[in-house]
Amino acid sequence: MKRNLAQWLLVAGLSLAFIGAYVALRNFHSPAPALPPSGKLPSATLLNDEQPLPPFSFVRQGGALTNADLMGHWTLMFFGYTFCPDICPTSLAALKDFKARLQANGTTPPQVVFVSVDPARDTPERMASFVAFFDPAFIGATGDDAALAPLAKNLGVHYQRLNGTDKEHYVVDHSAGIYLIDPQGRLKAMFSWPHDAAAMAWDYPTIIRSGR
Asked: Domain limits of the chain?
Protein backbone atom coordinates (compact mmCIF):
# COMPACT_ATOMS: atom_id res chain seq x y z
CA MET A 1 0.00 0.00 0.00
CA LYS A 2 2.80 2.38 0.93
CA ARG A 3 4.63 1.48 -2.28
CA ASN A 4 1.51 2.22 -4.37
CA LEU A 5 1.05 5.53 -2.60
CA ALA A 6 4.68 6.44 -3.21
CA GLN A 7 4.35 5.58 -6.89
CA TRP A 8 1.16 7.63 -7.17
CA LEU A 9 2.82 10.62 -5.55
CA LEU A 10 5.79 10.27 -7.89
CA VAL A 11 3.57 10.17 -10.97
CA ALA A 12 1.50 13.10 -9.72
CA GLY A 13 4.64 15.10 -9.03
CA LEU A 14 6.07 14.39 -12.47
CA SER A 15 2.76 15.30 -14.09
CA LEU A 16 2.70 18.65 -12.31
CA ALA A 17 6.30 19.26 -13.30
CA PHE A 18 5.55 18.58 -16.97
CA ILE A 19 2.46 20.79 -16.85
CA GLY A 20 4.46 23.58 -15.25
CA ALA A 21 7.19 23.26 -17.87
CA TYR A 22 4.62 23.32 -20.67
CA VAL A 23 2.92 26.43 -19.31
CA ALA A 24 6.26 28.18 -18.84
CA LEU A 25 7.40 27.29 -22.36
CA ARG A 26 4.08 28.38 -23.84
CA ASN A 27 4.21 31.70 -22.03
CA PHE A 28 7.84 32.21 -23.00
CA HIS A 29 7.06 32.00 -26.71
CA SER A 30 3.73 33.82 -26.57
CA PRO A 31 3.43 37.58 -27.22
CA ALA A 32 3.48 39.93 -24.29
CA PRO A 33 0.01 40.49 -22.84
CA ALA A 34 -2.15 43.44 -23.81
CA LEU A 35 -1.92 46.58 -21.74
CA PRO A 36 -4.16 46.54 -18.67
CA PRO A 37 -7.04 49.06 -18.57
CA SER A 38 -5.33 50.92 -15.73
CA GLY A 39 -2.23 51.53 -17.84
CA LYS A 40 -0.11 50.15 -14.99
CA LEU A 41 2.42 47.45 -15.84
CA PRO A 42 4.77 45.59 -13.47
CA SER A 43 7.61 48.06 -14.05
CA ALA A 44 6.02 51.04 -15.80
CA THR A 45 3.16 53.50 -15.77
CA LEU A 46 1.73 54.68 -19.08
CA LEU A 47 1.45 58.46 -19.43
CA ASN A 48 0.79 58.96 -23.15
CA ASP A 49 1.42 62.70 -23.42
CA GLU A 50 -0.03 64.12 -26.62
CA GLN A 51 2.34 67.08 -26.78
CA PRO A 52 6.06 66.75 -27.51
CA LEU A 53 8.65 67.55 -24.86
CA PRO A 54 9.47 71.26 -24.48
CA PRO A 55 12.47 72.50 -26.45
CA PHE A 56 15.77 71.76 -24.75
CA SER A 57 19.47 71.95 -25.58
CA PHE A 58 22.08 70.15 -23.51
CA VAL A 59 25.79 69.71 -24.06
CA ARG A 60 27.49 66.39 -24.70
CA GLN A 61 30.90 65.35 -25.93
CA GLY A 62 31.22 66.44 -29.52
CA GLY A 63 28.17 68.68 -29.69
CA ALA A 64 24.66 69.32 -28.41
CA LEU A 65 21.68 67.15 -27.50
CA THR A 66 18.30 68.56 -28.54
CA ASN A 67 14.76 67.38 -29.23
CA ALA A 68 15.82 66.49 -32.76
CA ASP A 69 18.05 63.74 -31.38
CA LEU A 70 15.01 61.96 -29.95
CA MET A 71 13.05 61.81 -33.18
CA GLY A 72 12.52 58.64 -35.17
CA HIS A 73 13.33 56.14 -32.43
CA TRP A 74 12.44 55.24 -28.85
CA THR A 75 14.49 56.79 -26.04
CA LEU A 76 14.97 56.10 -22.35
CA MET A 77 16.01 59.20 -20.44
CA PHE A 78 16.89 59.61 -16.80
CA PHE A 79 18.51 62.23 -14.60
CA GLY A 80 21.32 62.00 -12.07
CA TYR A 81 25.05 62.65 -11.78
CA THR A 82 28.32 60.78 -12.11
CA PHE A 83 29.31 61.15 -8.44
CA CYS A 84 26.06 59.44 -7.40
CA PRO A 85 26.95 56.64 -4.95
CA ASP A 86 24.12 54.24 -5.71
CA ILE A 87 21.02 55.03 -7.80
CA CYS A 88 22.75 56.17 -11.00
CA PRO A 89 25.30 53.36 -11.39
CA THR A 90 22.64 50.83 -10.39
CA SER A 91 20.23 52.25 -12.98
CA LEU A 92 22.85 52.23 -15.74
CA ALA A 93 23.75 48.64 -14.90
CA ALA A 94 20.06 47.72 -15.05
CA LEU A 95 19.74 49.45 -18.43
CA LYS A 96 22.74 47.54 -19.74
CA ASP A 97 21.04 44.29 -18.67
CA PHE A 98 17.70 45.48 -20.09
CA LYS A 99 19.31 46.21 -23.46
CA ALA A 100 20.97 42.77 -23.57
CA ARG A 101 17.65 41.07 -22.81
CA LEU A 102 15.88 42.93 -25.62
CA GLN A 103 18.61 42.11 -28.11
CA ALA A 104 18.49 38.44 -27.10
CA ASN A 105 14.77 38.44 -27.90
CA GLY A 106 15.24 40.19 -31.24
CA THR A 107 13.82 43.54 -30.07
CA THR A 108 15.57 46.77 -31.03
CA PRO A 109 16.50 48.54 -27.78
CA PRO A 110 15.79 52.22 -27.21
CA GLN A 111 18.52 54.87 -27.08
CA VAL A 112 19.62 55.54 -23.49
CA VAL A 113 20.24 59.16 -22.49
CA PHE A 114 21.64 60.06 -19.07
CA VAL A 115 21.24 63.75 -18.19
CA SER A 116 23.36 65.18 -15.38
CA VAL A 117 21.90 67.61 -12.88
CA ASP A 118 25.40 68.42 -11.61
CA PRO A 119 26.98 70.43 -14.46
CA ALA A 120 29.63 72.00 -12.23
CA ARG A 121 31.41 68.65 -11.90
CA ASP A 122 29.98 66.65 -14.80
CA THR A 123 31.71 67.92 -17.91
CA PRO A 124 30.69 66.48 -21.29
CA GLU A 125 33.92 64.46 -21.32
CA ARG A 126 33.30 63.02 -17.87
CA MET A 127 29.73 62.16 -18.81
CA ALA A 128 30.87 60.36 -21.96
CA SER A 129 33.45 58.36 -20.03
CA PHE A 130 30.99 57.49 -17.27
CA VAL A 131 28.21 56.13 -19.48
CA ALA A 132 30.69 54.35 -21.78
CA PHE A 133 31.78 52.23 -18.83
CA PHE A 134 28.32 50.64 -19.00
CA ASP A 135 27.69 50.84 -22.75
CA PRO A 136 29.51 52.88 -25.42
CA ALA A 137 26.18 53.55 -27.14
CA PHE A 138 24.70 55.31 -24.10
CA ILE A 139 24.61 59.11 -24.35
CA GLY A 140 25.63 61.41 -21.51
CA ALA A 141 24.65 65.08 -21.53
CA THR A 142 24.20 67.97 -19.14
CA GLY A 143 23.14 71.59 -18.87
CA ASP A 144 22.91 74.41 -16.37
CA ASP A 145 19.78 74.95 -14.30
CA ALA A 146 18.23 77.25 -16.88
CA ALA A 147 18.67 74.61 -19.57
CA LEU A 148 17.45 71.79 -17.34
CA ALA A 149 14.39 73.57 -15.91
CA PRO A 150 11.84 73.28 -18.77
CA LEU A 151 12.35 69.56 -19.34
CA ALA A 152 12.69 68.74 -15.64
CA LYS A 153 9.43 70.55 -14.90
CA ASN A 154 7.64 68.84 -17.78
CA LEU A 155 8.73 65.36 -16.67
CA GLY A 156 8.34 66.00 -12.96
CA VAL A 157 12.04 65.58 -12.24
CA HIS A 158 13.21 66.98 -8.91
CA TYR A 159 16.78 67.56 -7.78
CA GLN A 160 18.58 69.47 -5.04
CA ARG A 161 22.31 69.96 -4.59
CA LEU A 162 23.39 69.67 -0.96
CA ASN A 163 26.74 71.38 -1.36
CA GLY A 164 26.72 74.03 1.35
CA THR A 165 30.21 75.54 1.49
CA ASP A 166 31.93 72.52 -0.06
CA LYS A 167 32.04 73.02 -3.80
CA GLU A 168 33.77 69.74 -4.56
CA HIS A 169 32.36 67.04 -2.29
CA TYR A 170 28.60 67.01 -2.07
CA VAL A 171 25.60 64.89 -2.95
CA VAL A 172 22.59 65.67 -5.10
CA ASP A 173 19.16 64.40 -4.19
CA HIS A 174 17.26 63.57 -7.38
CA SER A 175 14.32 61.68 -8.84
CA ALA A 176 15.00 58.11 -9.91
CA GLY A 177 12.40 57.53 -12.64
CA ILE A 178 13.38 56.48 -16.15
CA TYR A 179 11.29 58.15 -18.85
CA LEU A 180 10.30 56.48 -22.11
CA ILE A 181 10.08 58.92 -25.02
CA ASP A 182 8.34 57.86 -28.22
CA PRO A 183 9.69 58.44 -31.77
CA GLN A 184 7.68 61.67 -32.00
CA GLY A 185 9.46 63.10 -28.97
CA ARG A 186 6.54 62.63 -26.55
CA LEU A 187 6.55 61.13 -23.06
CA LYS A 188 5.05 57.64 -23.29
CA ALA A 189 5.71 55.99 -19.92
CA MET A 190 7.81 56.06 -16.77
CA PHE A 191 9.72 53.18 -15.20
CA SER A 192 9.80 53.62 -11.43
CA TRP A 193 12.59 52.81 -9.00
CA PRO A 194 13.80 50.18 -8.22
CA HIS A 195 14.52 49.22 -11.82
CA ASP A 196 14.14 45.54 -12.67
CA ALA A 197 15.76 44.77 -16.03
CA ALA A 198 13.74 41.59 -16.55
CA ALA A 199 10.41 43.32 -15.85
CA MET A 200 11.36 46.28 -18.04
CA ALA A 201 12.35 43.97 -20.89
CA TRP A 202 8.94 42.29 -20.59
CA ASP A 203 6.97 45.54 -20.47
CA TYR A 204 8.84 47.50 -23.14
CA PRO A 205 7.71 45.48 -26.21
CA THR A 206 4.14 45.65 -24.91
CA ILE A 207 4.31 49.42 -24.59
CA ILE A 208 5.83 50.14 -27.99
CA ARG A 209 3.25 47.89 -29.68
CA SER A 210 0.34 49.51 -27.88
CA GLY A 211 0.04 52.58 -30.13
CA ARG A 212 -2.37 55.35 -29.21
From this structure: 44-210
Residue in 101, 75, 64 with CA at minimum distance from that of residue 183: 75
| Residue 170 and residue 162 in contact, taking contact as beta carbons nearer than 8 Å | yes
C-alpha gyration radius of the chain: 22
3-class DSSP state for residue 93?
A: helix
Average pLDDT for consecutive 10-residue bins of the chain (212 residues)?
Answer: 39 34 34 50 90 98 97 98 96 98 96 97 97 98 97 96 82 95 97 94 91 52
What is the CATH superfamily name and number for domain 44-210? Answer: Glutaredoxin (3.40.30.10)
pTM as predicted: 0.80
Residue 36: its pLDDT value, please?
52
Return the H-helix or E-strand segment holding 207. helix 197-210
For residue 60, CA distances in Å to 113, 119, 126, 127, 128 come to: 10, 11, 10, 8, 7
